[in-house]
Amino acid sequence: AKTFNFNGSHIGSLSADGISVKGNVFLSGVKAKGEVRLLGAKIGGQLDCENAEFVNEEGYAFSADGISVKGDMFLRGVKAKGEVRLLGANIGGQLSCKDAEFVNKEGYAFNATSAIINELLLWETKFKGRLSLSRAKVKVLADDEQSRPDKGKLSIDGFEYEMFRLPKNENAEKRLGWIRLMTESSFYAQPYEQLAKVFKQMGHETDRKKALYEKHEDLRKYGALSKKGKLWNRFLGVTIGHGYKTWRLLLWIIPIILLGAGLFCYADNLEVMQPSKERVYLDPDFKRTGVLPERYSRFNAFIYSIDAFFPFVDLHQEGYYLPDSTRQHGNRFRYYLWLHIFSGWVFSTLAMAAFTGIVRRE
């Protein structure tokens, strides 16, 4: 057939499985009280269902699994009660669902799993039921915040899109809100990585990092991590932002170094900080006067704190002085020195891992 025209018709149901039409199929304004079936149909032009009403609350209102449409498919203004299925559909043009309303509260309101669509337009679309775009592939995604199902009723695991049209004031936080509409009982990393990939292609580096950071945060909240895994995830998030907020290291390193400087200065005032090189105690002048030789490095609490904290730094302080455990409070200062050194090793290792990308796995 060249065309297939049911514009404005009132029908009980329609079965046109496997139909092959070289031109367009018109179902505009159709009112159907039964299933409309176009399974495996091949349409060389457009499929126009604008302002149609499909009602089959006990089953499928509109089923077109495996349909192939070379042109556009218009579901603008459609009101459907019952599941609308486009599983494995191939739409060469735009699939427009602007102003449409899909209702199936106990199941899928709109199911386009594994569909291939050139451009998917969801503007002012209402979904009262589940929306599935799982494993679908779309070149251009155009939607708005009003066109989203209730929380827990969105399936987008494996959903791939090359770009999306950005509504006004669109950012990573709003897109992440869309991803979090997926059920909280399971976690999928792919939607976050897909979002980050598109942001990278668009040159939105800050939004890319935000998407990947939140992937790790949501993994802890919704993923199947063990208690140890959640603890480690929390630690990496707080310290280095999972490798995407490495500046957080400074919020830990600077206070630790300042604390160490204060404690080591106090220890020096108590004469607990003593030279650690044996040659000093063999020096005749030092034995007689207690004054350090001119060539021996003088103690500086702030420099000592930095030298002890960073394992790959040698500022001629840590190796030259140690808290004397034989003096009052000497052991306490020595224990703190060990903790100070260990903290420096931990944060230095984290810094190296973050900057070399070991922590990140995008």
Can you characterise this structure?
The structure is a single chain. By secondary structure, the protein is α/β, with parallel strands linked by helices. 33% of the residues lie in helices and 26% in strands. The chain has 9 helices and 22 strands. The chain has helices at residues 172-179, 190-201, 205-222, 227-240, 248-269, 278-282, 284-289, 301-309, 330-356; strands at residues 4-5, 10-11, 14-15, 20-21, 25-26, 31-32, 36-37, 42-43, 47-48, 53-63, 68-69, 73-74, 79-85, 90-96, 101-111, 116-122, 126-132, 137-143, 154-155, 160-165, 273-275, 321-323. The strands form 3 sheets. Strands 1, 4, 5, 8, 9, 11, 12, 14, 16, 18 and 20 form an 11-stranded parallel beta sheet that branches. Helix 1 runs antiparallel to helix 2 (190-201) and helix 3 (205-222) runs antiparallel to helix 4 (227-240). The longest helix has 27 residues, at 330-356. It is rod-shaped. The protein starts with a strand and ends in a 6-residue tail after the last helix. The mean pLDDT is 89.
Q: Determine the N-to-C terminus distance.
A: 50 Å
How many β-strand stretches? 22
Structural class: alpha/beta
Percent of residues in helices comes to 25-40%
Largest sheet: 11 strands, parallel
Strand content of the residues, in percent? 25-35%
Mean pLDDT: 89
Q: Count every helix, treating DSSP H or I runs of 4 or more residues as helices.
A: 9
Shape: rod-shaped
Question: Mind telling me the C-alpha Rg?
Answer: 33 Å
Quaternary class: single chain
